[in-house]
Specification:
single chain, about 220 residues, outer membrane lipoprotein receptor (LolB), chain A
Length: about 220
């Protein structure tokens, strides 16, 4: 497993995240999720489950914090062990990745990082606008469960470009937020299956706190 591979996959998963009783279409649901996200000053959550990295199924556990209005996001790894304490900070212009084992920070332009966006090509640089982020995808509603006011909707997103694979996202009508994500390849193999927990909004997160990385780390521009 490489740090770049795991970072790309994680940001892709994060990008898929940050994208009812009366919602009848997939677009209705996406619009409600987008509106809820825009209304939040900050969002934080835990993303945990399994993901196939370099052909091996491994535990993935990350903490995510974002300020949608600034397109600013911070991702901190808890697992796998090889990447524990690694941190990724991305905004409109660049992606900074802190590598704990080498005490280095690599800096990559956001456009370059987006060109190699992971499993489904989701552009994580648009995390502040879910509708725009999904504009390159065909999104459809597969079904729903639960009672009125507590529906869980299952959406399927496939790239309009014709790339293989699909992303399944479960959206809760309560708060219009994702509760689970699943990524599969064109053969139907599950590449990642993750759940969302500890979802919070408006916790008083600041841009300075999200951008903070060890001051003594070596900075490498790519």
């Amino acid at each position: 497993m490489t740090a770049r591979t795991s970072t790309t996959i994680t940001l892709t998963l994060v990008a898929a995240l940050l994208g009812g009783a009366h919602a009848q279409t997939a677009q209705d649901i996406v619009s409600k999720v987008d509106a809820a996200q825009r209304a939040a000053k900050d969002i934080s959550f835990r993303l945990a489950g399994t993901a196939t990295l370099d052909s091996n199924s491994q535990k993935l556990d990350v903490l995510v914090k974002t300020i949608p209005a600034q397109n600013l996001i911070r991702v901190q790894f808890n697992a796998p062990d090889a990447l524990a304490d690694n941190i990724v900070v991305a905004d409109k212009t660049e992606v900074r990745q802190y590598l704990y084992l080498t005490n280095q920070v690599t800096v990559t332009s956001t456009s370059k990082a987006a060109d190699t966006a992971g499993l489904t090509g989701l552009d994580f640089t648009q995390l502040g606008n879910t509708a725009s982020l999904l504009s390159g995808y065909n999104v459809k509603l597969l079904g729903s469960t639960g009672a009125a006011g507590k529906h869980i909707y299952q959406l399927e997103a496939t790239p309009k470009s014709g790339d293989s694979g699909r992303t399944l996202v479960w959206i809760s009508e309560s708060g219009w937020r994702p509760t689970r994500l699943q990524f599969t390849n064109n053969a139907g193999k599950t590449l990642a299956d993750l759940t969302v927990s500890a979802f919070k909004t408006n916790a008083g997160l600041t841009a300075a706190a999200l951008r903070q990385l060890p001051k003594d780390a070596e900075v490498i521009k790519q």
